[in-house]
Amino acid sequence: MPKPAIHPSAIVSDDAQLGESVSVGPLAIIEAGAILGDRCTVGPHAQILAPSRIGPDNRIGAGAIIGGDPQDLSFDPLTDSTVVMGEGNTIREYVTIHRSSRPGGATTLGNGNFLMAVSHVGHDTHVGDDCVIANNAMLAGHVTIGNRVFVGGGSAIHQFIRLGDLCITQGNSAMSRDVPPFCVAAQLNRLVGLNVIGLRRAGFDDPTRADIKRAYDLVYRSNRNLSQALESAASLSWTSPAAAFLEFLGKKAKKGVCFPK
């Protein structure tokens, strides 16, 4: 069993659990109770704070901090909460991922995500699989992100917001309303169309893409309000992705849904 390779200047608690072939760089800190799966790498000055649970094949960049306390004025530091990360994620330099603010709660990342330098994931946020969070993007607390989402550099995502599968937010945009699946959002809560290129790259065939466009047009281009559009959609048949688009819109949003200008 290959032992962890720990730099002599790193501080690793005897009560941390490190899997096979873990690499820990200079001056990194891994606290008691933290768990790192096989083949993880932890860069210089990075901190894995208790009780973060990190799966195999994750790369934690220099200066990143995983499991820090939430930025919540009412938070009790004695709260038992965590960060849970899947496998194959790349966490670049100075990324911060905060643990849950709720007793027994978790901030979660799925698999295969790429968090670019200085991005932030707030407490109780849930990120799906294969997402890209670009440089300096900020996800507030209680954000829910689907799969294969791209959050542009410098974007600000307000608390309790949902970003649906395969959506994109433009760099330096701000979202305080939900962004539906397969859509592109820009500026302040503005939809600018469908993520056509992303849908092609994801393997959606022509009929499926056409059906998603049909659903988008019914909601946003039929001169109906959202309730009327969803009522009309209920009487029609849809492919699974188009149905998922409509289902997302049918769920009650805490702060509303983005619309085209």
Number of helical stretches of at least 4 residues: 4
In angstroms, what is the radius of gyration? 20 Å
In percent, how much strand structure appears in the residues? 25-35%
Instruction: Give the full name of the CATH homologous superfamily of the largest domain.
Output: Hexapeptide repeat proteins
The dominant shape is: elongated
- Report the CATH C-level class of the largest domain: Mainly Beta
Structural class: alpha/beta
Strand order of the largest sheet: 1-4-7-10-13-16-19-22-25-27-28-29
Query: Spans with pLDDT under 50 lasting ≥5 residues?
Result: none
| Count of distinct strands | 29
CATH third-tier fold name of the largest domain: UDP N-Acetylglucosamine Acyltransferase, domain 1
3D architecture notes:
With 261 residues, the protein is of the alpha/beta class. The protein folds into 2 domains: 5-160, UDP N-Acetylglucosamine Acyltransferase, domain 1 (3 Solenoid); 199-260, Udp N-acetylglucosamine O-acyltransferase, Domain 2 (Up-down Bundle), CATH 1.20.1180. Helix content is 15%, strand content 27%. It has 4 helices and 29 strands. It has helices spanning 196-201, 206-220, 226-233, 240-250; strands at residues 5-6, 11-12, 17-18, 23-24, 29-30, 35-36, 41-42, 47-48, 53-54, 59-60, 65-68, 82-85, 90-91, 96-98, 106-109, 114-115, 120-121, 126-127, 132-133, 138-139, 144-145, 150-151, 156-157, 162-163, 168-169, 174-175, 183-186, 190-194, 259-260. The longest helix is centred in the C-terminal third of the chain and has 15 residues, at 206-220. The termini are far apart. The mean pLDDT is 97.
